[in-house]
Amino acid sequence: MASSLTGPRLAPRSRAAKQLVVFLHGYGADGNDLIEIGRQWQPWLPDAAFVAPNAPELIPGQPMGRQWFSLTFRDPHERWRGVNHAAPGLDAFLDAELEGHGLPPSKLALVGFSQGTMMALHVALRRPHPVAAVVGFSGMLVVEEGAGVESLRPAIRARPPILLVHGDQDDLIPIEALFFSGEALAAAELPVEWHLSAGIGHGIDAGGLRHGGLFLARAFGLPFPK
Q1: CB count, 10 Å around CB of 89?
Q2: Is the CB of residue 31 less than 8 Å from the CB of residue 52?
């Protein structure tokens, strides 16, 4: 399945890609919203190529914003249907990027924000070969409404290390989503860590960025930055 997704990129500082980091933006944004994080992480990940694909759908009535799937906040099943609908396109993009860089799945990391975190977790756990890591900012694990977290375990095909980062003042995706996601992932025997950003709403602060970058460096087997 060929991928039609495109988005901004950053080449490795070393010019030869040994890792690939894919940013998945949130609802109403596009790839430009996250790609600059790659510049901040380049000193720690000099061999990493960064790419931030634009989500496949425009938001109706908005000329610029994009979405991985539609959200009305009126249908309790829309997130579950949404991640499943968008997953094949994202999977095809990841496969094409790995092939283009000549890298194995173990050198891929997914970094999501909000709706992008929902996509990162959903896809990473179901890929046939584990990625190196998942970092999820201000998002949540999506499970089927009414099925409960026990429905997650049979769907898991890969168990990458996961870091969840959340602001304790987030009023869009409340902090309870962090605790629910962390507990559900841990119950499914996934290696999950979390970081709480004090005083932060629906966004990413410097501390969260540092934790995310260092988590990826460790997941890629790189030495701790000096």
Answers
A1: 20
A2: yes
Map residue 197 onto helix, strand or coil. Answer: strand
Confidence class for position 2, pLDDT limits 50, 70, 90:
low
Tell me, letter by letter, the H, E, C secondary structure of 19-68: EEEEEECCCCECHHHCHHHHHHHCCCCCCEEEECCCCCEECCCCCCCEEC
How crowded is residue 191: how many other Cβ atoms within 10 Å of its Cβ? 13
Domain ranges of the chain: 9-219
- Superfamily grouping for domain 9-219: Alpha/Beta hydrolase fold, catalytic domain (3.40.50.1820)
Residue 1, classed as helix, strand or coil, is coil
Q: Can you read off the two tokens belonging to residue 205?
A: 């602060």
- Mean residue pLDDT across the chain: 94
Residue type, 52: A
Cβ contacts of 32 within 8 Å, gap of 6 or more? 7, 8, 52
d(CA 150, CA 40): 38
Q: Quick check: 141 and 123 in contact, CB under 8 A?
A: no
pLDDT tens digits, 157-203: 999 999 999 999 999 999 999 999 999 999 999 999 999 999 999 99
Other beta carbons within 10 Å of 218 = 16
Token pair of 166 as six digits:
């959340």
Which residue has tokens 């602060």?
A: 205
Half-sphere exposure of 17 (CA within 13 A, CB side): 20
Per the structure block, which two tokens stand in for 74? Answer: 């009126």
